[in-house]
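Researcher: Batch entry, complex prediction.
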Amino acid sequence: MKLHKPILVGGLGLSFSLWMLDSWHDSIVQVGEFGLLSALAVGGGLWLLQKNRPGEQLNDRVVDRASVENGISQTEAIINQLAQEAVNHPALPSLREQLAKLRLELDRREIQVAVTGGKSVGKSTVIQILKNVETLSTTSLQYTETAPLFAGLGENSDAVILSELQKSDFVLFLTNGDLTDSEFQVLQQLKTAKHSTLLVFNKQDQHQVDERATVLQSLKQRMSGNVVATATSPLPVKVRKIQADGTVKEWMEQPAPDIQQLTQQLGEVLAQQGQQLVCNTTMRKVLLLKAEAKNSLNSIRRDRSTPIIEQNQWIAAAAAFANPIPALDILATAAINAQMVMDLGNIYQQKISLEQAQQVAGTMGSLMLKLGLVELSTRAVTGILKTNAITFVAGGMVEGVSAAYLTRVAGLSLIEYFEQQEIALETGNGLNLEKLPQVLQTVFQQNQKLVVLEAFVKQGVKRLLPEAKPVEVVG
Ligand SMILES: Nc1nc2c(ncn2[C@@H]2O[C@H](COP(=O)(O)OP(=O)(O)OP(=O)(O)O)[C@@H](O)[C@H]2O)c(=O)[nH]1
Ligand SMILES: [Mg+2]
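Model: Structure tokens for the complex:
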């Protein structure tokens, strides 16, 4: 189905200009906004510019067992759909294995407590002590210490640490004094992601008594009271005693760790919310897996959509090139036909009748005009062709390349729309054309970067003009 050859073979002899465009383009790519990446993206279908859609997050609703189970079945449905559309998809075994694990997770008994905070705040010490507290050891608790926050790069970056915290049920966040900005930000992120967190003000002994109270007060204000104070490994203190005979005896004494507030608070939380915490964590994992499955599914669907869009874009280009009609509205209509809407809809498992497809195509065409996209891209294409390299623009070239470009934007927008539409379908909404203008505009903007456009124009010119054929000299 893919068109391999330039579909129009004329005799316009513009290969010199093409060569110019080629060498001129190389230098543009080097300095361009995205550099080589964008050029690759154009060649490879532009998907590189599209980030994976972030999955859903826990919201304010209470997560109960039923909603987790519901999430698991939704995820299973997506994985099954993936298996149906790509039997041997490499992600399938891992997705299925993870899904099976999640089913068991809901009945998990032990609670995962993560201990995090900056460097040397006392994470290891607190774990060591908590492990020996009898009242807590009746519940089965598992402690993990994260790498120190605010200190690492790459594997130990804050982002990685935060994503690892997703897997734990409860977070102890340690600090040694009033919160720094970065500490506060991480705490905010944990709050946004609905993590159950307790702030632990450790190393009390390093502060004067009145200062301790002030810091604690300030922390409580910022954390709406959710703070405990500890001294997990206080420094030895000098003890002085005046003996009966009047002499003074001095010695060093090791104070016992002070973790009473912490163990009490932790014990209460676990007793009251243990099951709820497991539910929340499992739901978070379900949503992550769901997003992963969805991304795999979307990515194979995009791969299947690419040849359809490309075929349509070069057909539109050929038509407009051969028969250049300057009217913008005709260009807009040429760019998007009902068949492409149906073909792409088919890939996205959306049953679209011919009538609906015609309606979508019509809406897109008039939107492209209304939003000024046709004019914008025609002008941009003209500019690139004229001012930069090609001294002689073949008749119809602007129209041809513009039609191809608009078709591409239309196709990419449809894909984006169908992806969003499917999320809408899950929630029970039908075909909803109101979303179309916004999607169209976003996708157009993504593709309007100069470097992307230039690479595309170059590709279009190559398609529409014959390659230079070597002249055989007989003699
Ligand atoms: N004065 C005082 N020192 C403490 C307290 N808790 C821990 N320390 C000391 O702080 C230092 C660091 O403690 P760790 O428990 O290793 O801290 P950490 O957060 O695990 O350190 P990293 O893993 O290296 O980031 C050690 O020397 C501890 O003895 C405390 O309450 N008071
Ligand atoms: Mg440590």
